[in-house]
């Protein structure tokens, strides 16, 4: 497909709480948006009907004839090769043929499916903190921990669209059992709910509003609360070990961290950078930088569009590459 600067991509970002859609232009701008709540506890057809509503709203706009491809970022696991998704938080979708179902509702436009961590990575590489970097790990640290890789200047989704899923690398060999079935995973230590649990177990008391979120733990840590500070220090240590392993395996130059937990700022980033020195020790790994993500909640849409543009050759070389 020739580069076409007027081409648009219809992007979908499918998560456990919302299904967002947008028409995205070649500069990463979101021209039209649509959104529905995810009926996550209902059966698969009902969830698909919500996706269809979003697509119908996008198709109704006058810009739709310029759409050349569809980019889909979904909560994982995804199987891009098979065109199916099985999001942990959407039990009605197991091996659900999302590519085929979306294709039926978009006139057969070519579609690209990636996991949400890979989508966020594509966005940060295109217009965010990893822009201009040839080798990067980008991570979302939130309710879960996901990620993706840029290698040799290109997004590296892997055969099934899940490469770079750092949340389920083990950093604690005999650690606690993870929801994925493994043990001692990064997510089991560094996700928001596990940070909060660790702080509570160590004696942190939530404030009068009863807020038990990682953001509340971060506020307590900033105020000098020791159990709260220790919970973030442990999360930072797990992330540092995972980043160091990645740097040692594939020589990344930067690790970009987004998601709600990254909003803790220095409470997370200061111990993370310090602990990284303990684990990223070899000369080629020790220079890895750690940066906060630049794109917020639109990263999934922008990145789904970027992944589709890369696969289908739209927009020439994206500026980030
Ligand atoms: Zn795991």
UniProtKB/TrEMBL annotation:
InterPro entries: ATPase_NBD, ROK, ROK_cs. It holds the Pfam family ROK. Belongs to the ROK (NagC/XylR) family. This is ROK family protein. It comes from Streptomyces gamaensis.
């Amino acid at each position: 497909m020739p580069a076409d600067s007027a081409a648009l991509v219809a992007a979908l970002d499918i998560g456990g709480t919302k299904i967002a859609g947008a028409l995205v232009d070649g500069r990463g701008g979101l021209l039209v948006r649509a959104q529905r709540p995810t009926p996550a506890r209902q059966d698969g057809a009902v969830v698909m009907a919500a996706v269809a509503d979003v697509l119908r709203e996008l198709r109704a706009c006058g810009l739709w004839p310029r759409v050349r491809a569809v980019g889909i970022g979904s909560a994982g696991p995804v199987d891009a090769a098979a065109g199916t998704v099985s999001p942990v938080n959407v039990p009605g979708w197991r091996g659900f043929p999302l590519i085929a179902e979306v294709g039926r509702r978009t006139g057969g436009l070519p579609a690209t499916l990636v996991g949400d961590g890979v989508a966020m990575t594509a966005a940060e590489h295109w217009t965010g903190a990893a822009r201009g970097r040839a080798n990067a790990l980008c991570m979302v640290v939130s309710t879960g921990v996901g990620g993706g890789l840029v290698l040799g200047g290109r997004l590296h989704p892997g055969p099934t669209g899940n490469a770079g899923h750092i949340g389920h690398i083990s950093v604690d060999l005999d650690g606690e059992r993870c929801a994925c079935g493994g043990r001692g995973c990064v997510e089991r230590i560094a996700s928001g709910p596990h940070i909060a649990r660790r702080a509570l177990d160590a004696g942190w008391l939530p404030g009068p509003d009863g807020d038990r979120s990682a953001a509340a733990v971060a506020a307590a840590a900033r105020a000098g609360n020791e159990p709260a500070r220790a919970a973030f220090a442990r999360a930072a240590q797990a992330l540092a070990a995972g980043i160091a392993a990645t740097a040692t395996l594939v020589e990344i130059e930067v690790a970009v961290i987004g998601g709600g937990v990254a909003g803790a700022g220095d409470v997370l980033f200061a111990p993370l950078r310090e602990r990284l020195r303990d684990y990223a020790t070899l000369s080629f790994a020790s220079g890895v930088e750690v940066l906060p993500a630049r794109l917020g909640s639109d990263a999934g849409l922008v990145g789904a569009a970027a992944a589709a543009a890369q696969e289908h050759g739209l927009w020439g070389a994206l500026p980030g590459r």
